[in-house]
Amino acid sequence: MAQHQAEVIWRRGGQDFLDRRYSRKHVLRFDGGAEVPGSSAPEVVSPPYSDPAAVDPEEAFIASLSSCHMLWFLDIAARAGFRVDEYHDLAVGEMGKNAAGKAWVARVTLQPRTSFSGDKLPTQEDLERLHHAAHAECFIAHSVKTEVLCQPRLA
Q1: DSSP bridge pairs for 28
Q2: Is 62 helix (H, G, I), strand (E, B) or coil?
Q3: Roughly how many angstroms between the first and final C-alpha of the chain, as a whole number?
Q4: Letter string b/e over residues 98-112, b meaning 16 or more CB atoms within 10 A of that residue's CB
Q5: CA distance 44 to 59
């Protein structure tokens, strides 16, 4: 099986740390070399100890579900003979409390808007079938307990 890797790098620097007033800013480094600024969500830890401009774990989780779904959708659409011109998803995650009262990402709703060109254009039924197939193949969706919804839209 393929192995994937990500590094999470945080350094204390000159901060005291034990007073719990330290920066949550860090770097997410991926196996291909990309680096992304990371932080806790500002709703969890207030600025200046978090960075609202950085990617928080909840956003990264939602983005990974959306990205995986999109990649499968593109492949399945191409195999079905539909030419995709653009795919834009506004994925939204909703926090909740689990049975133990712990916070979790309870629901993720994908809202992909897709435009097509060429002689073969999908109907709404085709679009829903393609998205259903993409969801059925998505590795990330198979890996979580979070309910993942998909609300596809034609552009």
Answers
A1: 8, 36
A2: helix
A3: 37
A4: eeeeeeebeebbbeb
A5: 13
Structural domains in the chain, CATH included, are: 1-55 (no CATH), 57-154 (3.30.300.20)
Give 79's contacts (C-beta < 8 A, 6+ positions apart). none
Place of tokens 């254009």: 121
| Pairwise pLDDT comparison (80 vs 4), residue with the higher score | 80
- Give the model's pLDDT for residue 148: 85
Give the Cα separation of 36 and 14 in Å (integer).
Answer: 22
Phi, psi (rounded to 5 degrees) for 110: -90, 140
Whether the pTM exceeds 0.70: the reply is yes
pLDDT above 90 (res 92): yes
| Residue range 129-144, pLDDT digits in tens | 999 999 999 999 999 9
**C-alpha–C-alpha distance, residues 9 and 4, integer Å:** 17
